[in-house]
Amino acid sequence: MLHYRSVPEAEAVLQRNLTTAEAAWLRYSAGTHDLWLYFHNIIFLLVVYTLAPLPLAVLELTRPDAIRRYKVQPKVPVSLSAVLRCYRNVVCSFLLTVGPLQILSYPTVKWVGIRTGLPLPTWWEATAQVGVYVVVEDYANYWVHRAMHTPWGYEKIHHVHHEFTVPVGFAAPYAHWAELLLLGVPSFLGPALVPCHITVFWLWMVLRHVEAIETHCGYDFPHTPTKYIPFYGGAEYHDYHHFVGRQSQSNFASIFTYCDYIYGTDKGYRYHKDLRAKIR
C-alpha cells in the first residue's frame, strides 16, 4: 500500500519527478492493500493460462495439416474433450490450491522484503533480478522434478502430470495439487533470496508460466525466439520426457539443459536423437 496521497506528495518525498510508470502505479495502488496486490498473481496466471495456449490449440483443431510437420509426436492425437477436461481441472487447482497458497504465503512475502511502494525498479534492475530467478528456479526445479520420478514420487504425485504422454500447452500446469505446491517452492526461491518489487514478481511468474506453456506445446517450430537462447530446452526436449513417461530418467530440466548434461540425465535423449538421425 502506498502512503502517498498524490503525485506532488510522492515527488516531494522522493525529491524528483515521478516517471510516467510511477505516476500510473501511484494512481492504481494508492490505498490498495498489499495482500490484494500480491493476490493479483493468481489472476495473471489464470489469464495467461487461458490465452497463451489458445492460438495454437485453435489452429490445431481447425487447420491441423498446416502445422502437422512441426508436431513432435504427429501420430498421437489429443482430443478436444481431453483438453477441456485438462483446462477445467487446472482452473480448479489454481482456485482451490494456488489461490489459498497466495493468501497463506503473504506473511512470508512481506518478511522476505517483496515491496509494493515507490520507486519502481529500473529495467536493468528488473532484468538482473529475473535472470537470477531463472537460474535459481532452474536448478532447484531440476531436483524437485527428479525426486518426482522416484517410485514413490511418481506413483503418489507425478503420474497425474504424465497422463498427457503428448504434451499440450494447456497441460503445462496440469498436475497433482501437491506437485503444484512443491513446484511453487523453486519459483519463489529466487524472489526470496533476491527480493524485488511486486511488479517484477508478477513479471517473473508470468514469464515462467509462458515458458512452461511453450515447453509443453508439443510443437517444435524452427524459428521460435527461444531457439536462440543458449542451452534452452524447449518443446522438443521436454516432449521426449513425456514420450518415455513413467520410466523416464531423462530430461528433467525446467528451462535450460545444463543440469541434465552435468548429472548425466540426458543420455537417453541423446541416444534417441542419434537413432532418429540414422533412421532418417
Automatic annotation (TrEMBL):
Lipid bilayer topology: Multi-pass membrane protein
Principal localisation: endoplasmic reticulum
One GO CC term on file: endoplasmic reticulum membrane
Any one Gene Ontology molecular-function term assigned to this protein's record: oxidoreductase activity
Record localization: Endoplasmic reticulum membrane
Bilayer-spanning residue ranges: 35-59
Keywords: Endoplasmic reticulum, Lyase, Membrane, Transmembrane, Transmembrane helix
Catalyzed reactions per annotation: a long-chain fatty aldehyde + 2 NADPH + O2 + H(+) = a long-chain alkane + formate + 2 NADP(+) + H2O
GO terms classed as biological process: lipid biosynthetic process
InterPro entries documented for this protein: Fatty_acid_hydroxylase, Sterol_Desaturase_Related
Limits of the Fatty acid hydroxylase domain: 132-265
PANTHER family hit by this protein: STEROL DESATURASE (PTHR11863)
Family: Belongs to the sterol desaturase family.
Protein name, entry field: aldehyde oxygenase (deformylating)
Native source organism of the sequence: Colocasia esculenta
